[in-house]
Amino acid sequence: MVPPEVFTLPFMQRAYLAALLVGALLPTVGSFVVPKRLSLLGDTSAHIAFGAAAFASLIGLAFTDALSVPVTALATVLMLRLIRGMGVSGDVALTVFLTAGAALASASISLGSRVNLQAALFGSVLLVGPEDLMAMLVVTAAVIGIVVTRFGDLILFTLNEELARLKGVRTGVLETLFAVVVAVAVIESMKLMGVLMVTSLLVLPVVAASSVCTSLRKSILTSVAVAELSTFSAITLSYLVGLPPGSLTVLLLLAALLLLGAAGRRGMTL
User: Fold this and answer.
1) pLDDT tens by residue, 159-184
2) Is the pLDDT of residue 222 over 90?
3) CA geometry: angle at 205 spanning 204 and 211, to 5°?
4) Among 3, 18, 89, 167, which one is most buried in terms of CB atoms within 10 A?
5) Which of 207, 143, 155, 144 is nearest to 32 (CA)?
6) Other CB atoms closer than 10 Å to residue 12's CB: what's the count?
7) What are the CA-CA distances from residue 53 to residues 73, 106, 172 (Å)?
8) Which domains does the chain carry?
9) C-alpha angle with apex 230: 72 to 128, nearest 5 degrees?
10) Count of other CB atoms within 10 angstroms of residue 74
11) How far apart are CA 38 and CA 188, in angstroms?
12) Considering the entire predicted model, what is its pTM?
């Protein structure tokens, strides 16, 4: 039984609102990342953003996003260009940038960068402040707005870039927009979920939803529902049992993946 006061505590209310936003943002972005077979793009972007933020702190930048956002977006664009234009396999390109980001973070911390490793790696959704919520709200609204207005182009870009070009879609511009969206979504979500947890919300709800959904539109809606249920439940359980909400979220997402996977194998579809 959940005590009623759980829902009246200000820090819990902020945590639930953060869960609402990140649960809508990451699966929506992930619905276009996973079909392109770039599931580790979120993890790679998170490591790059972590490295850039650590370096920004080292050189005295008070607003670390001023460096981490452009660096992560540029790195994401370069990764996509390497994969598409130079024939480099996705896992190789992602590994190169992931290790570069981790190396930059390690070097910056060794040289004196003041980074809260616990918060950076595992997030602190229960400690989220009003300013973090406002930034997350702006990013979520912007990303969902882009997806809604460019939905058809994004589907073509995701499933068949050659067909998208034949249809007149400016794939170079869309690729850059895609990279910026991924970078900003990952950076803002890192503040809540941490470097090591972002990929779980980017990928696992999408994979779970794809087991039972017959269209991308249905898959996006189902993946968001799975993410929202998992994050809300994890925050409540965290308050009750004292375990980190990030790890509980991952466990609940894995349970959802198993359940929907079993449903899909039995022929149940949406």
Assistant:
1) 777 777 777 778 778 878 888 888 88
2) yes
3) 95
4) 18
5) 155
6) 17
7) 13, 11, 27
8) 4-265 (1.10.3470.10)
9) 55
10) 16
11) 20
12) 0.85
